[in-house]
Write a structure and sequence with these properties.
Order of helices and strands: HHHHHHHHHHHHHHHH
Oligomer: single chain
Number of strands: 0
Largest sheet: none
Helix content: over 70%
Structural class: mainly alpha
Number of helices: 16
């Protein structure tokens, strides 16, 4: 893999850290800016809203620009708004920077995925994509707890400075290593965009997107308010928060790895088992939140289940969106971020209503239950949201890599998804 792909992955790592790190910084932000905890939680929702708007919109608009210019514009904007967020004394400005950072993040991801797959051999697109998106998983494992630790030592603003600093090497790498590339205006507009939008009206695809939003909403509802839960209910010191965030990140990595092995071959089985287990786990976490032994174990398990189920739903969106190769991934990203906005908002509303620090966990359980009901109704009405992908005759392979869904921009050959 070209070394520049790893530096693009570094930028994705910084962006993923920025999106998730507030879960360990909310109490500090609320105290410093003199706002409520639920208002601080809205910063996470604001980022998610920006991603929702930016993912499908900028996936089209950015195709009109040369790739290097687009990547630099998005990443420099992302860097600068984090500097502004680190120095602002006001909540309103910080909220605005979260929205702008999310828009820049969404645009960067749209262009970076296209750039990464264009810089490798045609049969290496999957590996290139995994290098790039591996930055998101590493953000959960290392970036988020590191941000929480920085916040504990030097205040929440230091975490924003760190995100800006980590983005600098990626800016330099893009400037000197990424070819300018052509502008794909013919892809961005006209009939193809309209045809893809019409393809996204498929009932099965709509159900999958709704399920992804609900499951991700449950995940982020609990994750956003993890710090006050641990300190106020579980009774652990604030210094334990980075460790538990790292544990959550390890669980998410385990879940993504599990989904990568099983989602293509047995998606229905994974969701049929993982969905009810996820619901039972949120209920168990809420009931045992005061137990300092049970909470770390359950957080790891819930992270693994959440990301395994969520990743499987994303892969099924890609299978269902064969008529929308450009926008399918963008709308999947938007749906996940609808959940990332909905979850913290619902959890914050429960806290504002005085339902206690366990209430976000009960909200997570409710959102998961709604997803199970919706999925069950879709199956009963023969709009099965999940079906095992139809397997074509297996071509001979010289490696041991598993079949994957066609990536956005891949052209099918003879009706089969090729490597």
């Amino acid at each position: 893999m070209p070394f520049v792909l790893y530096l693009l992955g570094l930028a994705v790592f910084a962006q993923g850290t920025s999106e998730f790190m507030l879960s360990g910084l909310l109490p500090d932000i609320a105290r410093d800016l003199n706002v409520s905890l639920s208002a601080a939680g809205a910063l996470t929702s604001a980022f998610a809203v920006g991603m929702v708007i930016g993912a499908p919109l900028l996936a089209l608009l950015s195709l009109r620009w040369p790739r290097r210019r687009a990547l630099l514009a998005f990443l420099v904007t992302f860097l600068l708004v984090h500097v502004l967020g680190a120095v602002t004394p006001g909540y309103g400005v910080l909220l605005a920077t979260r929205v702008v950072a999310a828009l820049a993040n969404a645009g960067f991801l749209a262009v970076a995925l296209t750039t990464a797959t264009s810089m490798v051999a045609p049969d290496a697109k999957g590996r290139a994509t995994s290098v790039l998106l591996g930055g998101t998983t590493m953000a959960c494992v290392a970036g988020v707890p590191a941000g929480a630790l920085l916040g504990e030592l030097w205040g929440w603003r230091s975490a924003f400075w760190a995100v800006a600093l980590v983005s600098v090497p990626a800016v330099l790498a893009i400037r000197w290593s990424v070819p300018a590339g052509p502008a794909a205006r013919s892809v961005a507009g006209g009939p193809r965009a309209g045809a893809e939008l019409r393809a996204l009206r498929s009932p099965r695809l709509v159900v999958l997107l709704l399920l992804g939003a609900l499951v991700n909403g449950a995940t982020f509802c609990a994750f956003t308010y993890l710090a006050p839960l641990v300190t106020e209910v579980t009774g652990l010191r604030a210094g334990w928060v980075p460790a538990l965030l790292a544990l959550f990140g390890l669980g998410s990595f385990a879940g993504v790895s599990l989904a990568g092995r099983l989602a293509d071959a047995s998606p229905l089985r994974l969701l049929a088992l993982g969905g009810p287990a996820l619901l039972a786990g949120w209920i168990a976490t809420a009931l045992t939140a005061g137990n300092p032994v049970a909470v770390p174990v359950l957080l790891f398990v819930q992270a693994a289940l959440s990301f395994a189920v969520g990743s499987t739903l994303v892969s099924q969106v890609l299978y269902a969106a064969t008529g929308a190769p450009t926008l399918g991934g963008g709308f999947a990203t938007a749906a996940l971020n609808v959940g990332a906005a909905l979850g913290p908002w619902c959890g914050g509303a429960a806290l504002t209503a005085g339902l206690g620090y366990r209430s976000p966990l009960w909200v997570s359980a409710l959102l998961t239950a709604l997803a199970l009901v919706l999925g069950g109704l879709a199956l009963v009405t023969r709009r099965g949201p999940v079906t095992a992908p139809r397997r074509a005759a297996r071509p001979s392979r010289t490696d041991d890599s598993a079949p994957r869904p066609a990536a956005a921009g891949d052209e099918p050959a003879d009706g089969r998804r090729g490597r």
